[in-house]
Amino acid sequence: MFVAMGGSMIVAIHTYYRSDTAAYQKDLLRYCAEGKNERFGVIEFAVGVDVVEEFKRAVAGVEEGEWHRLERMGNGNRPGTEQEWAEVCFVPTWVGYRKNGPEYRFLAIREPLHQRELPGMDSPQLPFPTLNIGEVRYKLTGVVTNRDLSGDDVIRWYRARCGKAEEVHAVMKNDLAGGHLPSGRFGANAAWWAITVLAYNLNSLMKRLVMPEGWAPKRLKAMRFGFIHIAGRVVTHARRLVIRLSESHPAYGLLLEVRRRIHALWHEHAGLSGAPGPP
């Protein structure tokens, strides 16, 4: 977000962070919550919790009336889930060191397990933490956050990270050839990867800021066929490079709209920063 003040430009950055339990580290969580970094300030986060015995005991003390049904993401007309969430009064040792420290909210998510145990397997080893509440056995997970949102909104935002990182990696490695390093030299490969990241960021900004609605989720292959690889006639005249297209070309209107949006975006930025506009 750009804010003009006194003829200068101030850039306000609000940073968010979400991760699985790999980021459940006290130093990292404190860094995000305390906001000592002048550039980023307080970083709002949601991080998966290690389900230790102390956390299980805190969850077991939650009253039944405090559990809330967790609806599906993008609910619509789809049925809800069997998952429930609740705020847990859980204060790890590293949180209680300072009386005036930042606040951390701990959320628990439980899901009943309907599959019956096989005979002779009283305590099967499952690949996820479980907790017995009454006669029901639940799959148990947790989230710690400093966001001032309802619990279900925090959980949905936390889960929205899933799959996106892998998609970004696939685009950079395959679509932009970042996975095919040019040499055996570390410096050259680092430069190659930096160019790949720059190309990905520029392509993402272009799709979100200047391309028409519906282009944001398109992969680079669709961009090439529908926008970049367009047949035209290149003409050099009066020291100018001109590309001529037929008015009946399907991409003609798209190109004009993109140029108009780039022009408007430039003027908006120039007006906020005080920089001169395009000639």
Sum up the structure in keywords:
alpha+beta; 279 residues; two-stranded antiparallel ribbon; 3 domains; 7 helices; disordered N terminus
Q: What does the model show?
A:
- Strands 3, 4, 5, 6, 7, 8 and 9 form a 7-stranded mixed sheet that branches. The chain has a two-stranded antiparallel sheet with strand order 1-2. A two-stranded antiparallel sheet has the order 10-11.
- It is an alpha+beta fold and 279 residues long.
- Strand 3, helix 1 and strand 4 form a beta-alpha-beta unit.
- It has helices spanning 26-34, 53-60, 151-159, 164-175, 186-209, 220-228, 252-273, and strands at residues 2-5, 8-11, 16-19, 44-48, 68-69, 84-88, 105-112, 130-133, 136-145, 233-237, 240-244.
- Residues 1-12 have low confidence and may be disordered.
Helicity range: 25-40%
Give the H and E element order: EEEHEHEEEEEHHHHEEH
Q: In what range is the share of β-strand residues?
A: 15-25%
The structural domain count equals 3
- Structural class determined from secondary elements: alpha+beta
Q: How many individual β-strands?
A: 11
Measure the end-to-end span: 25 Å
Give unreliable regions as ranges: 1-12
Short description:
The protein has seven helices and eleven strands. It is α+β, with helices and mostly antiparallel strands and 279 residues long.
